[in-house]
Write a structure and sequence with these properties.
The protein is of the alpha/beta class. The chain contains nine helices and 13 strands. α2 crosses α8 and α2 runs antiparallel to α9. Bound molecules: glutamic acid.
């Protein structure tokens, strides 16, 4: 009886050690790389050029995704000062995760089946929809069905580029590396419309340099479930991040983060928000 008990305790201790080893493994890839060197440091991929979502200005990082990342990091035991922000353009997100260059990505990153083959997701933490951004005086583009003969811009590796190609077969689509390049081209007249998530488009339309010059059409034609991307199969980390998202929603932080970051652009979250995060698999 006594021996069996000790055996059970030993087995329990061994399990705890294994779990601890797993835990430091997933965190360790952050600390051992070019990050701060702190074992609790996290490298987090965000966008650097999307106002209201992920924006770098000097050494300041702002936006909904930045605040979500800070909240989650804190729950994981990492202070803001120990976060290394890494630029994560749409087409590079899966690679940044699978090569261990980041521990997680919080970058308007839609959960999709094909991405799930390469990375795991916690979430969703927000639901957006794909829309169109046009010049304020353009009355000819009223939705995806009026895009025939128009020059459209989106970003390589985004669901936006994929969706619109399906929605409007034969569309004249140009893909850039970032949405800010598309918006500059729209403003200069080189292209006629930009397509991506309404959250992103609202942020540009409200930016000082474009205020009154650009408008969001306002007819969303997809559902974009934003998730936090992590290394494929890291269920322990996925569960921790999912719990953090749940508490962010239930303790009122989600609402504050959304109001603070999307409110200034006049963006109102659509149906389904706040979402219920899915179970990790
Ligand atoms: N949410 C979409 C995606 O993950 C479009 C926005 C983006 O490219 O970040 O592809």
């Amino acid at each position: 009886m006594k021996t069996r008990r000790i055996g059970a305790v030993a087995a329990g201790a061994a399990l705890a050690l294994t779990l601890a080893a797993c835990g430091s493994d997933s965190g360790g890839s952050s600390g051992s790389g070019s990050g701060g060197g702190d074992s609790k440091g996290l490298k987090i991929g965000i966008k650097f050029d999307q106002p209201g979502l992920g924006l770098k200005k000097g050494s300041d990082f702002t936006g909904m995704d930045v605040d979500v990342a800070k909240y989650v990091a804190k729950k994981l035991g990492t202070d803001e000062a120990n976060i290394t922000w890494v630029q994560a353009p749409s087409a590079q997100r899966e690679t940044l995760i699978s090569t261990g260059q980041v521990n997680m990505i919080v970058a308007t990153y839609s959960i999709t089946d094909s991405r799930k083959e390469k990375v795991s997701f916690a979430g969703p933490y927000f639901i957006a929809g794909q829309d169109l951004l046009v010049r304020a005086d353009d009355t000819s583009i009223t939705g995806p069905d009026s895009l025939k003969g128009k020059k459209l811009c989106s970003v390589t590796g985004s669901t936006s580029a994929q969706n619109v190609t399906k929605e409007v077969p034969g569309i004249n689509l140009q893909n850039f590396g970032t949405y800010s390049e598309c918006v500059a081209a729209l403003s200069s007249g080189a292209i006629d419309a930009v397509t991506t998530d309404d959250t992103i488009l609202a942020g540009y339309a409200a930016q000082d340099q474009y205020k009154g010059k650009l408008k969001v059409v306002g007819k969303p034609f997809s559902t974009e479930n934003y998730g936090i991307g992590i290394k494929k199969g890291d269920t322990a980390l996925c569960n921790q991040v999912t719990d953090a998202i749940k508490s962010m929603i239930s303790d009122g932080s989600w609402q504050k983060i959304v109001d603070d970051n999307l409110g200034p652009a006049g963006y109102k979250p659509g149906d389904g928000n706040p979402p219920t995060p899915a179970a990790c698999s």
